[in-house]
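Changelog entry: the Translation initiation factor IF-2, mitochondrial record was regenerated in this release. Current contents:
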Amino acid sequence: MEAGSITQHIGAFLVQLPSGEKVTFLDTPGHAAFSAMRARGTHITDIVVLVIAADDGVMEQTVESIQHAKNAKVPIIVAINKCDKPEADPERVKKQLLAYNIVCEEFGGDVQTVPISALKSNNLMNLKEAIVTLAEVMELKADSTGLVEGIVIESRTDKGKGPVTTAIIQRGSLRKGCILVAGETWAKVRLMLDENGKIMEVASPGMPTEIVGWKEVPAAGEEILEVESEQRAREVVEWRIYVKQQEKIKKDQEIIEEKQRAHQEAYRKKREGFMNMNWRERASILRKSQKDPMTRQPEKDIKSDKNMLPLIIKGDVDGSVEAILNILKTYDANEECQLDVIHCGIGDISENDLNLAESFKGIIYGFNVKAHNSIQQMAAKKKVKVKIHNIIYRLVEDLQEELSSTLPCGVEEHVLGEAAVLATFEIDVGKVKVPVAGCRVQKGLLNKKMNFKLIRNGECIWTGYLSSLKHHKEDIAIVKTGMDCGLSLNNNLKFEVGDEIVCFNTKEVKQKISWDPGF
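Regenerated structure tokens:
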């Protein structure tokens, strides 16, 4: 069981049927955060078994999985689960699927549907027969000879084994000592394990295999190819790194050229504007600048008015880090606080992570990883926050709270009372005439110690304090509903009949980031 009772990793395992046939299953997470894992699993597999709860019906992730299967052009078998529950309605599920062009055999289509109960193991043999039948119709075959080809399902760093990948072999037979290339790294296979941790001698097509011997951790989804020698593997990796660097240089050059064009266009417009001026205007500009007016002045450093939250992301496997980064991409950069991922990687929290977080004054978020006692003590000494979660949505909630804590407190206004100006007059205070408003409190009360607003024609034209508040020529602190009073403001602003006086107080409240990651 995974934390939070939800699947959060992609799993690959082999099931042997009573007939002796073997089926490899890829179990992909259904949670919204793991969309990339589902898409990757769909492109690897030959048949998609779409599991839908009979009581819930077609959900958002179900629709997304259907789209993934269509994009990959993979046939679908629908397994309607939880049919043992009283509220189960398999027929409703079949009708809902029609809206997404999934036509079941009962309605004249070609999609098999099997009602099952995973909890009570009901009808699972019928599901097996449906899978085997479809596989026979599709005539699925693989070549077990020649150089190995495969795909990385998931990758991680193991403390004892080093970089490890879970892979599906698609062609050839993988053996110990084979030289493999995946992405920008390579491996000489030292060890192969099945899903139960048992050592394998040979991995044939369709078998899920844990491969040990990689120089670096390849990304999930990378294609695995066998090469003749270690020398050839190094050449392939060096070439791929070179190509990637050239692409980056080309992209950077395009950005630089675009900025240069923008600067040249701005310079041209500025020059044309200057040349269109008369000689007096030109002379005035020259005197002010005392420099060539066509020379672009260096831009002053403009400090951003937004807060920045530096993050370090560590996950147990590549797919987890990928899912978290995809969630962070949904964050609105226009919010008052911005996210800055300064580093992401696979494995437990390390001293290097702490040093990096200390330098950038950032926070370390770990997903299904560990921070040993020595690391926790060092983090406390360096005053670096280390937050570890094993449920994806808990991590997002924590991150949202952390973002909200960076915002300054907002101010809420609470109206205490309202009064209408019925008459205006002036009184002499020394040599100064002070405007006074004769008012009647219509709602609540006026408290001289609180804040006040003067509203005219629906618009606030003044905010401040009262210089005096009187009732029948007596100074008074509070005037209640229905009472008449005279008041003056602290800036001698003139009143008009019909103005509104509002008494209010303010309260600081914590602001919250309005971030919806989509689940």
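The first strand starts at residue 11 and ends at 16.
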